[in-house]
Amino acid sequence: MSDRIFNFSAGPSMMPQSVLEKAAAQMVNYEGSGMSVMEMSHRSKVYDGIINNTEAALRRVMGIPDNYKVLFMQGGATMQFSAVPLNLMVTGKADYAVTGNFAKNAMKEAKKFGEVHIAASSEDRNFAYIPKQDQINADPNADYFHICANNTIFGTEWNYIPELGNVPLVADMSSNILSRPVDVSKYGVIYAGAQKNMGPAGMAVVIVREDLLGHYRENMPVLLDYKLMADKGSMYNTPPTYAIYMLGLMLEWIEGLGGLTEMEKLNIKKSQLLYDYLDSTDFYVAVADKDSRSRMNVTFNTGNAELDAAFVKASVEAGMSNLKGHRLVGGMRASIYNAMPIEGIEKLIGFMQEFEKKNK
Amino acid sequence: MSDRIFNFSAGPSMMPQSVLEKAAAQMVNYEGSGMSVMEMSHRSKVYDGIINNTEAALRRVMGIPDNYKVLFMQGGATMQFSAVPLNLMVTGKADYAVTGNFAKNAMKEAKKFGEVHIAASSEDRNFAYIPKQDQINADPNADYFHICANNTIFGTEWNYIPELGNVPLVADMSSNILSRPVDVSKYGVIYAGAQKNMGPAGMAVVIVREDLLGHYRENMPVLLDYKLMADKGSMYNTPPTYAIYMLGLMLEWIEGLGGLTEMEKLNIKKSQLLYDYLDSTDFYVAVADKDSRSRMNVTFNTGNAELDAAFVKASVEAGMSNLKGHRLVGGMRASIYNAMPIEGIEKLIGFMQEFEKKNK
Questions:
Q1: Separation of alpha carbons A113 and A82, rounded Å
Q2: How far is residue B51's CA from residue B234's CA, in Å, rounded to a whole number?
C-alpha cells in the first residue's frame, strides 16, 4: 500500500502498517473463531485469551511489578483527570506540576475534589521547559504528586523522575508511554490515553500500585473506581474490547522490534535527527529548551506566522499531514511517535531544507 | 468467508459480514486519505466528514427531531447510569421502573445522587414481564422516569411507551436501539451502549432533548456533562473515533436494507419464527410472558438444568455460539440482533427440533 502518507498528527496518530494489515486480515474471522474480535462476548474464552495476552504483553514490555494492577478503562486521559483525585485524595490534598495544557486541565479537574497545590510550573515561559528538581516545591504530606510526562502541545518531556520521598508520583504518560523504558516501581499510578502509542482512541490504560486501591470517594460514578475495576479484571461492564485487542497487536510489534530498549534507541535517533537539523540552521527555531525537549513532539517555527502557514500548506502537498502547530504555540509540530518510520523524518528534513532554500 | 458461525451472544454480538468486510478493506487506507480511520486526527477534515456523516445517518434513520442533540460518549450504558441523574436530577428525585438487572443497576447508581422512587417493578416474578400502564405508580413531580427498554438477560421488551404527562421519559435502549422505529419525540433522553446493534463496544450514544441540558451537577467528572459534550460536538477530548466510524457503516447497512421499518419487519419475522416454535412444543418453555417478549433476546429452557447444559454443549458443536442463558435466569438465550440472519434462526430451530426428538 504505497499510497500511505507520513502522518505527523499529535493523536490519534500513525500506526505501524503491519499492525493495520494484521487487523484487516483478522477482521472478519479471528483465528478460526468464526467471528470478528468486535463480535465476541467479552466473557468468552477466546476473548479471555485476547485480554489476558494483552495484559501479559504490557507487563512484559514495561516490566510492571506484580504489586501493580493494570486496568483498561474508558474516557481517555481526561476521564483519569477525574479518576485520579477520586481514587487517591485520601486526606484531600494533592500537588500538581503545571507544565502544559493537559497538566493544567488535570489540575483544574482535581480542584473539584480537594485542595490542590501547584508545586511547580513553567507557565512563565509558555511551558517551553520542564522544571528542575530544585524548582519543585513539594508538599511532603500531599496524597500524590501529578505530572504530565510529555507535553504534546509544547513539545517538552520530563527527562528525569522527580524525587518526592514517600508521596506517590502519578504520571499522565498519554503521549510517551511505550516510547522508552520506565521504572514503574517509581510511580504510584501511570495512566495513558491509548491514541498515540497504544492503538485507537477510546481507552485509557491505568497502572496502579495495589496499596493505593480502596479509597474511592463515596457517591461518585461507579465506573471510575480503580478497586472495582481491578477486582473485576476491567470487566465491571463491557470493556472497549477492540481497543484492547489493538493494543495487543501494538505490543506484539514492539516486542518484535526488541522491546522498549530498542524502541528508545529508535526514538532517540529519530528525534535527534530533527533536533540536530533545527540546531544547525537559523531559519527555524526550536520551541522547547534543549534539556526539556520531547522525543515525541518536536515544536518549531520560522519566527514568521505567514511563512509558517506557507510551510504547513506546502507540507500537505508534499504528502505529510498534520504538521500545523497547536494554536497555543503556533508554528509547526512534528509528532513522531513509535510508528513514525525514520523515512518520515528524513522526508520531513529534506522538505525543511528545500523550504529553507526557497524562503531564506 | 464461509466459516463464520452463528453467534447468539447478548453483546458484543454479531455484525453484518458486509460491514466487517468494508472495515477490513478500508483499514490501511481510508478512501485515499493515506491512513486508517484509527490514525486520523479527530480534528481533521476527513474525520469531520466521518463523524458528521454518522450523526446525519443516525438522525435520518431514527428520525431524530432538530431539538435533540446526539452525543458520542464513552463508558457504555453503565457510565450513563451515572450521567443521567447527574444531568437530569434538577429537584433531586427520579422514578425508576425496575424490570431487570441493568434497570436495577441504573436505579442503584441514581440513588447515589438523589431520591429514587421505584415506580414499577417486575421483580416479583424474576422479571418475566413488563409492567402495564396501570401497574405504574409515577410521581408527577419526578425529574424524569427511567426505563430499560429491552431487558437482555430476561428477554423482555417494553412494547408500549408509558404515559407520564410532562415527566421526561429516559430510556436505556442498549439492546434494542435501531431494531424498530422509535418516536424520539416521546423521550427526554435515549441512550445506548453500542455493542449490540451499533458496532463495537466502547461507546454510548446519547440522544437528549435540548431543553434538558444545562443542569449538570457541580463538582462532578467533567466528561459526563451532556451540555459540554453537546457544545463541543462530542469532542471535549478525543472521542472513540473508530467506534463512531463503525456506527456509520452499521447505519449505511441499515439504510441499504430500507431503514428501521424494514428492519422491524425482519426482526418481527425472526423472533416470531422462534416464539412460534417455542409455543408449538411442550419440550421447551419460553421464559417471558407473551405480551412482554423481546424481539432481541429469546429466553427459554427445557425445565431440566442438565438437559439445558447438554443443549448448550451440543449447540456449540453444531456451530452456534453463546446460547447459554445468563445465570440469573438459567436455561438458554438466543440473542438475535439486527445482524443475525434468518438462516441463523432457521438453523437454531432445526437444531432445537433435533434435540427435542433425541431427548423427549
A1: 8
A2: 10
- Per CB-CB distance under 8 Å, the chain B contacts of A75 are 74-75, 79, 223, 237
Residue B103 near residue B147, CB atoms below 8 Å = yes
* Count, residues in chain B: 360
Across-strand partners of B191?
B172, B206
Find, among A43, A239, A48, the residue nearest to B326 by Cα. A43
Q: How far is CA A312 from CA A319, B1, B333, in A?
A: 11, 44, 56
Range 291-350 of B in CB contact (< 8 A) with A: 319, 321-322
For chain A, state the CA radius of gyration.
21
CA B173-B174-B178 angle, 5° bins: 70
Cβ <8 Å between A78 and B236: yes
Q: How far is it, in rounded angstroms, from Cα B48 to Cα B241?
A: 10
For A2, the closest chain B residue by CA position comes to B34
Digit-coded pLDDT (tens) for B175-228: 999 999 999 999 999 999 999 999 999 999 999 999 999 999 999 999 999 999
Q: What is the mean pLDDT of each run of 10 residues along chain A (360 residues)?
A: 86 97 98 97 97 98 98 98 98 98 98 98 98 98 98 97 97 98 98 97 98 97 98 98 98 98 98 98 97 98 97 96 96 98 98 96
Order of all β-strands in the sheet with A169-172: A68-73, A204-209, A189-193, A169-172, A145-148, A93-98, A115-121
- Contact between chains at B112 and A220 (C-beta distance less than 8 A): yes
pTM, whole model, 2 decimals? 0.98
C-alpha angle with apex B328: B326 to B334, nearest 5 degrees?
30
CB atoms within 10 A of CB A94: 28
- Contact of B132 with chain A, judged by CB distance below 8 Å, is answered with no
Phi and psi at A282, nearest 5°, equal -95, -10
